[in-house]
Specification:
Shape: globular
Largest sheet: none
Order of helices and strands: HHHHHHHH
Length: about 210
């Protein structure tokens, strides 16, 4: 076991929640290659799930505080491709948002990981590390939630999650950067196209009524 690794093989350690959380955040952000290469690719998913939900909850709480303080009208949007349900903030109800965030966050994680695991199987091949590895990547890249609540700059900083996700898929599934990038960027591109279509449709509907 290398220096700085937790008792759970480099993952978030529930036996030392605060210290482990800070340590994992630091290593995911600053040493992503080493971190993802060192985590287990199978086994219980509770630790990575809890880490992800903490990041999501912190993001929602801080976004809610900014909205309530009148600093911004809408919560920060996290463009991290691991978010199948990227918006867990309910306008007009900060408390309810904080309560439901872990629920929708967990559902979104499993959906995102399932979609990406399908792509892993199609692109990387049958000889991959399995759903557990993909789910861990989806969970630990939720670290971007710690900054996405920042007005204007947050979503831009959160794009670092693209790099983290590509590195994570590459290291956990022992594949190439190109294949890992396809796994991550295909869903991201689909979401962008859908968002563009929705924006164009909304804009057309708005101007057609004037």
């Amino acid at each position: 076991m290398g220096v700085g690794r937790s008792a759970s093989g480099g993952e978030y350690d529930l036996s030392n929640p605060a210290g482990s959380f800070v340590d994992v955040v630091r290593r995911v952000i600053l040493q992503p290659v080493r971190f993802f290469a060192g985590i287990p690719t199978s086994g219980p998913l509770l630790n990575p799930l809890i880490f992800a939900l903490i990041c999501i909850e912190i993001s929602v709480i801080l976004s809610a505080l900014l909205v309530l303080a009148g600093v911004q009208e809408n919560p920060g949007f996290n463009p991290n491709p691991q978010n199948a349900l990227p918006s867990v903030f309910i306008p007009g109800s900060a408390l309810l948002s904080i309560i439901v965030a872990p629920i929708f966050g967990a559902i979104g994680l499993f959906i995102a990981a399932a979609i990406q695991q399908l792509l892993v199987r199609l692109i990387v091949g049958a000889n991959n590390s399995g759903f557990g590895a993909t789910f861990r990547v989806a969970s630990y890249t939720q670290v971007t939630g710690l900054v996405n609540w920042i007005p204007i700059a947050g979503p831009l900083l959160s794009l670092y999650g693209l790099y983290l996700a590509i590195v994570g898929i590459r290291e956990t599934h022992n594949t190439t950067t190109g294949k890992a990038a396809l796994v991550i960027l295909i869903p991201f591109a689909v979401v962008l196209v859908i968002a563009l279509i929705v924006l164009v449709a909304v804009g057309f509907a708005f101007f057609s009524q004037r």
